[in-house]
Task: structure prediction
Amino acid sequence: RFQTYPKRCVLGWGSTKSLRQAIQSLMKKILLVTFILIFSTTAFANKNKNTWDYPLRDYEGWVVKGSENHYKFKSNLRKDKNVLKEFKNNKNTGIISYLLFENDQIVIDESDIPYSVQGDKIIDGMLPSHSMGKSLVSYVTGHAICEGYIDNINVKLNDWPLIQNTLYQDSILLDLLNMKGGDQKWVGERRNVGSDNRIKGEKKEENVNVIGLVKVMNKYLRGTEKSKLIYNYSALTTNVIMNYVKFKAGDNWDKLLHKVFNEHVGVKNKVQFQKSRKYLKYEDFVSARYSFYANRYDYLRIAKTMMDDWHNDTCAGKYLKTIYENRIKKKDNIKHATDVGLYTKSYGGQIHFDIFGIDKKRKILGLSGFAGQQILIDLDNKRIIVVSSLYRNYNWKKMVYDKIKKTN
Result:
């Protein structure tokens, strides 16, 4: 302050208005530092902490079988010194899988996937998406619109009894896709609780991913009203979107997922979304959550299909273009070069856009998940990077950013 306001320090800070502006500026800096500290203790997962996910079998939900007509990749492999360095030290870096796809072939393919993680077996090679699954929920939502279950991205969620008399009643689907749910008093990063999945309670915080949507609405949100519509990254917002699609699809929910992943993407191995609760004896509505599991190559198949959708202008591709055109700025403008989710300026349709330091005209889709899960889809150069990790201590800038930044 003595460097910024030398005269006011001597003369007693000057006007009340100047004092208020100075305090507001200081508070913004304090909030930013607080967020980074919180993020450092959560997103940078400690290597001794289990970052796998909730037990796969306990929360198994909707499984989609692999397709006999799956896409068969071509390869022209090379070794990359930066990637090899991270794998050589992966007990500290956490990296377990890395794929780089360009020129219509896989050019880097490295993996060191353990048999289990602190007792949780890796079943059939399926790796967790964590919050990358939020983007996949959006992709399924686009297909639900294409299949006619939902009219468009501007519909109001006013026909779903579960969210009546809650802050989500009459929400516009696009707002939720852009993480503008007006729910910041209850959930999300705006509450600065160190996690996007904790909901405010009278006595304790509960994880919205495991208590189920019925309990969330009945115990916490019945009678609440939405706040100002601002960007607030939240697990609950995604789960509301996902379960609205499930509600609209009705008995065709499994059929919709099969249509997306088996028929459209053509995964080779089974994939699955998880349910929210182990035991659902008293609930008619089994709530889904965005946590997704897939084989490493099937993540690449999904990403390639999204890229092909965009270029072929399919119905799903038009959906992706629409959410890109309607993306919003991230208000905090946090710039932290360890993850595409923290190194992007914009957000739209549950996808991160506009990477810092890269030409704003370039279109790159960023999918980001806890503990270092990353998918980046460079639509202009048809390049894809897929990373799976146990904890995010790897060199994101050299392994991901520098490679996606290239234009040739």
